[in-house]
Amino acid sequence: MIILPTAYFPNLEYFKILFEQDTVFVDGFERYEKQTFRNRTTILTANGVLNLSIPVVRPNGKNTLIKEVEISNAEDWRKDHLKAIESAYRNTPYFEYYWDAICDIINADHKYLYKLNFDLCVHLIEKVGLSLDFEQTSEFIDFLENDWRKVLHPKKQSKFKSKHYIQTFEERFGFQDNLSVLDLLFNEGPNSISILQESN
Question: What single string gives the DSSP state of each residue in 85-121?
Fold first, then answer.
């Protein structure tokens, strides 16, 4: 059994795990942890690598389960995120093929972070061309051998290495590894699955 944390526009390592599996469970019953990919993604812009974070509310403080974490609308983060993503990728070869649907999901009135992430991930799995059962857990599951909840973390050095693909601002910043799957999809489109297949 493979178990992953929920993630906002997951990175390529996350999608490589999905690529290699027939069934993956995403955890909704772990306690929410700050400063992780659960509410953060990384893209490449004209000014370099940029982290985008969704502001959240934890109704039960440190004991809040991930499924209970609410999206804060105190600031217009949707507008900021969409503006940043559009600015970064509007000149990529496949932007127009994917942009409208992504906007629709972001602008939908999601109350909970977990539901937004799940809807985005299901959509991106389809667009990348993966074939797997992407399931939600029904209870908290203790640590497993194939448990990625603590491994996929911004502060932990990843061993994942993507096969090279053309990035919009590569000439300026060099190739940036393990960005959001958005970077791959907008740049490579239908070839994204081949890049994942050849990544280690």
Answer: HHHHHTTSTTHHHHHHHHHHHHHS---BHHHHHHHHH
